[in-house]
Amino acid sequence: MNPQFWSTNPIIKENISCFRFCVTSERHLWTLSSKTISIRNRDLDVIYETSIDDIDEDVDDFLEQISFSKQLSRVFICSHNSTKIHFFSSQKPFNYLSFVSINSTINKALEKCETIIRQHKSACLKISALLSVNVCFNP
After folding, report:
1. Mean per-residue pLDDT for 119-139?
2. pLDDT value for 44
3. What is the pTM of this model?
4. Do 75 and 119 form a contact (C-beta atoms < 8 A)?
5. Which CATH number do you get for residue 13?
6. Phi/psi of residue 4, each to 5°?
7. Which of 2, 67, 117, 124 is deepest in the core (most CB within 10 A)?
8. Strand partners, 31
9. In a domain, 132, yes or no
10. How far apart, in whole angstroms, are the C-alpha atoms of residue 17 and residue 87?
11. Where are the alpha helices (DSSP H) in 1-139?
């Protein structure tokens, strides 16, 4: 994905209470509001902003989950009722990297179920929380 999807036009500081979810990454604050992803500086001025629709046309609902991994230098974002997790670099130029979908995992887990149960469960099973965990292995 081209990093040009970020808007860098001067953005007037809006009411800070309008964002729903946020996470800090290194020197920036990432905020989610409806379908907008914003990256703010220490003064809470928006320095980069984009719509999830510019990244993924399949997103129907508002952005709801965000998590940061310092170990991976990644920010993970997903929308309400979604089966996709989107990955961004947490360092400039904040590139959109990719996404992972849990659809195939859900379908595989439900393949032995009856059709009506499989349809119901696949419609209900969505990502409801994100948590980045740093794992350390000691040999």
Report:
1. 71
2. 77
3. 0.73
4. no
5. 2.40.128
6. -75, -5
7. 67
8. 22, 38
9. no
10. 25
11. 52-55, 103-109, 115-124
